[in-house]
Amino acid sequence: MCGIAGVLGPPERTAGLLPRMLQAIAHRGPDDSGEFVGEHLAFGATRLSIIDIAGGHQPMWADGEQVGIAYNGEIYNARELTEDLTRQGSQFHTLCDTETVLQLYQAEGHLNLPEMLRQLRGMFGLAIYDRPRHRLVLARDPFGIKPLYYRLDSRGSLVAFGSEIKSLLTDPECPRVLNRDALVNYLSLQYNPLAETFFTGIYRLPAGSFADVDLHSGHVDIHRYWTYEFDDTAREDEGVLTERIRHTMRESVGHQLISDVPVGAFLSGGVDSAILVTLAQEHLKAAALGPLKTFTLGYDGLNEFDEAREVAERLGTDHHEITISENEFLDALPDIAWYYDEPVANPSAVGIYFVSQAARQHVSVILSGEGADELFGGYRKYREPFDLHHIRRLPRPVRAVAAWLAKSRINYRGRNYFRRASTDLNERYFGGGYGTFAPDEVRRLLRAQTATDHCRPGSALADTTHGFEELSESRRMQLIDINYWLGGDILTTADRMSMAHSLELRVPYLDSDVARLSARIPDSLKYRDGTTKWILRRAFHGKLPQTTELRQKLGFPTPLREWFTRDPDAMLAPIRRSTHLVDLLDMTFVEELASKHAQGRIDASRRLFLLVMLAAWLDAFMDGDVATPPSER
């Protein structure tokens, strides 16, 4: 696992800039660092050594230093690809998957990049410099597990790229101009779903995409090589699918245990992590290794220690419990905002930050359950369309009256239910975030004269995805989350909070084979008997404690509501002391929210936390040395 960075320009400019870019992301790769400074391009990497510790120095070169790569990721089918390439005549000098990607590009990828990238089973953000073709290739894995950003100048030409935004901001010529559209979306969705980041001129490369860059002109062409699509062509029965899920998940976990350094796993009280830990422990026992080290985190009075311990004791893992306090939570926020690069209002990030810190004392690689809910239908909200179906079957005159009442100010039991039933999905569902600001609240916060709108992922997908509107509502909700919330919030949180402590986080549910299999599961096998992820639970029936098998998702819950009520001054301090936030927002409205929450009239904890993270981000990036965490300034 690594951090990569590069910058276009003559060596008299790039030779001094590249080391600063790499230093800003040294936490992504503390074991090694390498640079190349050429006539038109400089690029390099910081390395966290996981496989072939001695032989994976980057940038790595082939063909007499004509083609080079800087690479961040893990390719789990590297051994199989290497064997195929060797039979075709490729000669390997290391056991590192970096060389596998490089040789694959040399053999066939330069002719057909989409096909090459689809062969890679893993997670990656990479840059390939092809000197003879005056070409630079940037690419990300299908789900966007690993990040990659790039900066364009005013003409639209590439200036620089890197694993994290802060790397690009080390350039004194890079302006720190706040992108107001990103801010509106953050206030509305709790993260920024746009391609352009919070900094004008800096973009994220979309998941499942590559950028083909002409190094003569700096012109950038973005191409999508992979997208998640539901597949109804193979109608397998319950028994066949159940067995396939067991086999495919077992294989995915087995591949992702491959490492030359110790591997552990996060363990909450839910079914997703319990399945991973069960399969990982089986693999280790079969290899006469182990026990697996597992880690869970909680707060005093709010945790899943008992539930996680139940699984750990049944399997015999080496289990660790970490408890953090309100003060530790608050003290970490400035650095967490810095590691994030853009504001994300996910309170579980703090838990992942601390549990990663604890895990890194024992292991270098961790397995985690991100992606299971999005692929297998794990969120209770995905059941809502089936509940609303009962209202939609009512006679049209009754539905018309109910819709009119729902839009009125008359309060009655079931009002919100009728309102949602009469509202188009693209207007009512924007992804996983909740507790965010409504459009009129965003307008008031920003002191705007007119309403400020945010991205509607469903509408965007309807414009770009063939057949989207014909899918069931639950499937459309899944696609919204897979294409927006998963990458914009969930995976960003997992990557940044683990890499803050140089811990490689692997997500076996987001394996390409698992994804293809999940796309074939009909709704009827996802939602049954009042539960979600029904067939995933069924596939591992008897392997887990029964209480775990049936438990609803909690993750790493955070007592935000209690803290904002019990100790509002401490919780609101980051908002009140941020001069940037005071200049940006209507603080009278913010104090009104805080007052109503303290009085118990509303629950504004998520909205207030959203502003806390915005304040911490503004202070981290608009002042001081952006290459250094706030706690070290």
Question: How would you describe this structure in keywords?
Answer:
single chain, alpha+beta, Glutamine Phosphoribosylpyrophosphate, subunit 1, domain 1, Rossmann fold
What can you tell me about this protein's structure?
It is built from 27 helices and 17 strands. It is an alpha+beta fold and 633 residues long. The chain is 44% helix and 15% strand. It is globular, with a radius of gyration of 24 Å. It has four domains: 2-224, Glutamine Phosphoribosylpyrophosphate, subunit 1, domain 1, CATH 3.60.20.10; 238-378 and 479-550, 3-Layer(aba) Sandwich (Rossmann fold), CATH 3.40.50; 383-430, no CATH class; 560-632, no CATH class. The model has no long low-confidence stretch (mean pLDDT 91). It has a six-stranded antiparallel beta sheet with strand order 2-3-1-9-8-10. The protein has a six-stranded antiparallel beta sheet with strand order 4-5-6-7-11-12. The chain has a five-stranded parallel beta sheet with strand order 15-14-13-16-17, sandwiched between helices.
Strand order of the largest sheet: 2-3-1-9-8-10
Task: Note the gap between the termini.
Answer: 26 Å
Averaged pLDDT: 91
The CATH architecture of the largest domain is 4-Layer Sandwich
Strand content: 5-15%
Overall radius of gyration: 24 Å
Question: Secondary-structure blueprint of this entry?
Answer:
Elements: E1 2-8, H1 11-23, E2 32-37, E3 41-47, E4 60-62, E5 67-75, H2 78-87, H3 97-109, H4 113-118, E6 122-130, E7 135-140, E8 149-152, E9 158-162, H5 165-169, H6 180-189, E10 202-204, E11 209-214, E12 220-224, H7 238-256, E13 263-266, H8 271-286, E14 293-299, H9 305-315, E15 318-324, H10 326-340, H11 348-359, E16 365-367, H12 372-376, H13 384-392, H14 396-407, H15 415-421, H16 425-428, H17 439-445, H18 457-464, H19 473-499, E17 504-506, H20 512-518, H21 534-539, H22 546-550, H23 560-566, H24 568-576, H25 579-584, H26 587-598, H27 605-621
Helix pairs in contact: 2-3, 7-8, 7-20, 8-9, 10-11, 10-27, 11-19, 13-15, 14-15, 23-24, 24-27
